[in-house]
TrEMBL record:
Pfam families: DUF3667 (PF12412). The chain crosses the membrane at residues 74-95, 136-153, 190-212, 224-250. Keywords: Membrane, Transmembrane, Transmembrane helix. It comes from Fulvivirga sedimenti. This is DUF3667 domain-containing protein.
Amino acid sequence: MHNCINCGKPHEYEYCPWCTQKKVVGRLSFRVFFDDLQDKLIGFDFKFSRTFLDLFYRPATVAKSYIAGNRVRYVGPVGYYFVMLTILVLLITIMDVDMIGYTRNETSFFQQSGLTPEQIEQQESMQGWIYSNFKFASFFFFPFFLFATALLFRKSKFNLLETSVLVLYSLAHSQVFNYFSITIFKFTGISFSGIVTGISMLYTAFFAMDFYRHNKRIHAFIKGLLIYPLGLLFLMIFLLVVLFILVLIFPERMRNFLILT
C-alpha cells in the first residue's frame, strides 16, 4: 500500500485512482521536464485538432460534450476562444495588416447614404480599431450576442451559462474565415471582410440549428441568422444609454465632444 504524494490517499496502483498522480516518481531530471512538456503538447495538440475539425461539421457535439461534463475530449470554450483570438492578433501583427483598409468595403454603403467624408472616415477608423483590438472588442461584444441567443432560444432547456458555450465556440471558430480573408487581403489588396461577416452569420445559424434540436431545423437556422444583427442592436442600444447617461452627468464635456465629432 502506498500513500499518494498528491492527495495522500492510500492505494496500490500505478496511478492514483483519485487524482491520477503516478505512484513512483524518480528524482527530477531533464528527461522528466522533456516528458512532461511532450505530454502536455501532444495532449493539447490532439484535443485542439479534434475540436477544430469537429466544430466544422458537428459543432453541437463539441458544445454538448462540454456541457455534459466531458473535459478530456475537446478544448473548453474559453480556452478555444483565447487561442483563436490570439492567432488572429498574431496574424494581424506579424503581417502588419492595414485593418482600416481591410474593413473599408464594409463601410462602402455609407458613401451612398449621404454621409460626409469625415463621417465615413470615422466609421472606417472605428471598424479598424475593433479589428486591431479584437480581443478586447470580442469580450465586449460577447454578452450582447449571448443575450441575443438566449432571447431567441428562450424556450430551450439550456440556461444562460450553457448557452454561453455555444456563443463562445461559434465566435471563436468564425475567426478561421478571418484568417483566410486577412491573408488574401495582405497579398492582393482585395478585402472580403463583408463576405466573411456573412459566412460567420451562416456558420452561427448552422451551429444553432445543430444545437437546438427541440426546434424545427429551419426555424432554428432562421433564429441563428438573427443572432448577429440582434446582438449588434443590443450593443447600439447599450451605447446610446451610456451616451445619454454621460450627457446627463457631464453635459458640457459631452456637448464639446459631440461638436468635435
